[in-house]
Amino acid sequence: MAPSEMNETEVKTRSTLITAIKWWWLFVVLGLAGGVMGYCLGWFSPRVYEAKSVIGVSVDLTETGDLSDTDEDRLMQNIVGNCLSLEVLEETTKTAIEQGLVNQNSDLAADLWAERFQYAVTLRARADSPQKAEKLVDIWSQNAYQYLTDSAAHAVQAAQIQKAVDDLTSCFQQSALVSPVSTACDSLSLDDKLEQIDALSTALAEATTAARGVAPGMSFLSPSPIAKAQQVSSSLGVLTLAGSLLGLLLAYCLVSLGWLPPSSEGDRAA
Hints:
Elements: H1 3-22, H2 24-44, E1 48-59, H3 61-64, H4 69-83, H5 86-98, E2 112-116, E3 120-127, H6 130-175, H7 183-186, H8 190-211, E4 218-220, E5 230-233, H9 236-256, H10 264-269
Antiparallel strand pairs: 1-3, 1-4, 1-5, 2-3
């Protein structure tokens, strides 16, 4: 940059600074005005309230065996997924519509969150009033608990069917041996064994699917009582700060663009 250009830039910068100091009260006024406008917008913006419920998870290690951290994470993520499953959300939405909490076009899933905390799942529901948030999370937690309990029952059923399949498979293998087999195995023909194995395998697949990733030996505690909903979102402070910053930016633009009378010293420098 040429010396003349540097001098011109320094002069303009100095002139702008002096003008800004001269009009310091304008920065204060516009900053306060912007803050007041932002505060008013925040005051009239919708409030958001959140209510919580917790479903405890009990694990019988004699049934599941020792679980690694990876196994625990996978099982707990399956439980969280069950709470957010399409079936649970549809039933919750249906009940919420019947009770007048939401309308037909509401996307209730956007207001529901589930997260794992150790051996428990925390369900959170948000709404524009504390009463609505509490009712929503109560409906959701009851539906999720019933869904998980049904899944656990199918998991137990799948384990029992698996044991029956293993026993029949052992019988089938013994039938191929020369040595005598047990009386129970001997009472079944080869075709009967194959037919039962096929039927049990089909039932096992159905029960495993219905278990939805819940392992045998897992049970669930009834949802905790719903605590009073708390306000979790307020744009009051954010909008107030944003309004103040916009006011200061406007004042700076007025000064830097030369829309305000510069100081006499600035005129002399120019």
